[in-house]
Amino acid sequence: MKILVAIKQVPSRDSQLKVSSSGRWMEDADLSAEINEPDAYALEEALQLKEKHGGEVVALCAGPARASQTIREALAKGADRAVHVEEEDLGRFDLLGVAQLLAKAAAEVKPDLILTGLQSDDLGYGQTGVILAELLGLPHSTIIMQVEKTEAGIRVKRELEDGWFQHMTMPLPAVLTIQSGINKLRYATLMGIKKAKTKEVKQLSADGLGVTAAPKVSLERVYMPQRAKQTTLLPGTAKEQAAKLAEILKFEVRVL
Amino acid sequence: MSVLVVMEQSRLAWHRMSWEALAAGQQMGPALGIPVAAAVLGHGAAALAGELGGKKLDKVYHVEHELLDHYTADAYTVALAELVDMAKPSMVLFPHTYRVRDFAPRLATRLGGLLVSDVLRIEVKDGAAVAVRQMFQGKLNADYRAAGGGTQYISIQAGAYRAEHVEAGSAEVEVLTPALEAAQIRIKVEEPFRESARAVDLTAADLIVSAGRGIKEQENLSLIQELAAAMGAEVAASRPICDNGWLPMERQVGSSGQTVAPKVYFAVGISGAIQHLVGMKGSKCVVAINKDPNAPIFEVADYGIVGDLFEVVPALIEEIKKAKG
Questions:
Q1: Which end of chain B is more exposed for a tag (fewer CB within 10 A), N or C?
Q2: Chain segment B6-30, per-residue pLDDT in tens
Q3: Contact predicate B155/B100, CB 8 Å
């Protein structure tokens, strides 16, 4: 089975964000970056499927030159090769534009299965995999907790709301978005890191893929949200904060 | 020009968030000066369509087909694409449910549009709709406007609008039978199921102490358990803690876990991603302990301690024991 995994590089989770002077994005030049966590689970699922059924895992990433770090990590963990759609300013595309870049690149790979995380930790649209499926004319399912290969295709377990699940079957090729926690993430081994240096990373560009930016939706402004509630922040040392909170819990909230 | 609200039902019972999306639609219609319609899809959904007919709407579409008896992304996309082609709304609203996340991006793409997902509110500026949504796990807000003149597709975040604001009225119901064929549906679904009966009912707890990524290691959970014991509270957690297997899934609070509304909810080392907030923001009092002053959890907190939980929690356990005498 040839499995394509779409991965994204995002700012680290504990980044302190600052809105840029344009007011349309944040200052991201100095932020440290990492693989989008749900995509790490998608990659792990692809690697496990390959270990069970054989085949190949290809990592696909659209992003600036520095995303090559995230691509190398995927190769070090065990992806066989990668495709990097190098684009310094992905922000000039809307979500559909980015999905078009990925779809064009995916069509060249001709995978049996496409996996990606259910959403990104930065923009959080949760749509890329589904749009990719539509652009490629493939069936899809989202928020997947389990993937089994069958004679005719795959059987997956989809998470529904409030603790419910559902199994479904579909033919291949197909697109799945993977839920975090579906498997246990592996670390790259020293051998893996060494091998990654020799693995193929194919470079593609928006121009080369024939995708032009024609946004249907424009991001006008980003800003710090206003607090919905008046939060009483308790000052002082840890001990003073704790003493004040205990007093509030006893005399104001009255639960002690 | 009109607003179309796509309602959600399973086994002929409404998804509660449908009413929130309908409330959003009923506000947007007058704000933009355009009529508002709502649609229900299903098999044998006449009673649901009739119920919509009792709301303040200009039109109700009852999309009826036996292939819509169970949800599949393929069938919903075909049926709704036909409805949108026919009704030509300028704005389509959905509740941001797991199901909508599954099919709405596909539908919008097929119709040449783009869904703005998980929207907090829609503002009208210069006669145009501006959708506000969160980014970076709730750390930033962003305003989106349609570029070009196509239909806008927007899904509404849980709790963003209030179901009780839906206005009653009367509307004509039009029954539509989409041209759906079994061969268009590539996915075969089985019956939904629950893994096991829930042994822990967090919804009945008065006090909950909940742990997030900030606790860093499984062994540090004992700190949370001690605090809960001192308070007489139940232990809960955000999703990553349960994903790691540090606590059973049944102790998870959030969109994929339980929705709770205790007297006091302690969020310890929880940043407050929206998936977590929707499960606990109904709590009467929220206490947040987090080292990041910009963590979104402080937006719903009544009392906040910005600090190192490994210093604050032990001190708090001691003070609570003292206060209880």
A1: C
A2: 999 999 999 999 999 999 999 999 9
A3: yes
Is the ipTM above a cut-off of 0.85?
yes
Q: How far apart are CA A177 and CA A115, in angstroms?
A: 6
* Segment 3-42 of chain A within 8 Å of chain B by CB: 11, 13-17, 19, 26
| Candidates A122, A220, A222; nearest CB to B130 | A220
Of A122, A233, A238, the CB nearest to B304: A233
Which residue in this structure is represented by tokens 């998470």?
Answer: A159
Nearest Cα residue in chain B from A234: B305
Q: Do A124 and B118 touch (CB under 8 A)?
A: yes
Q: Could you tell me the residue ranges of all domains in chain B?
A: 3-184, 202-324
Domain B3-184, what fold?
Rossmann fold (3.40.50)
Q: B162-198: per-residue pLDDT in tens?
A: 999 999 999 999 999 999 999 999 999 999 998 766 6
Let me know if the fold of B3-184 is the same as that of B202-324.
Answer: yes
Per-position DSSP letters for A214-244, written without gaps between them? --SEEEEEEEPPPPSS--EE--SSHHHHHHH
pLDDT at B258: 86
pLDDT tops 90 at residue A228: no
Residues of CATH 3.40.50.620 domain(s) within chain A?
2-209
Tell how far CA A50 is from the center of its chain.
Answer: 20
Report chain A's terminal Cα–Cα distance, integer Å: 59
According to CATH, the topology of domain A2-209 is: Rossmann fold (3.40.50)
Using alpha carbons, select from B274, B252, B66, B34 the residue that is nearest to residue B155.
B274
Model pLDDT, residue B190: 97
> CA-nearest residue of chain B to A122?
B136
In CATH, which superfamily holds the domain spanning B202-324? TPP-binding domain (3.40.50.1220)
The count of other CB atoms within 10 Å of the CB of residue A150 is: 11
Residue ranges of alpha helices (H) inside chain A are 37-53, 68-77, 95-109, 128-136, 190-196, 206-209, 238-251
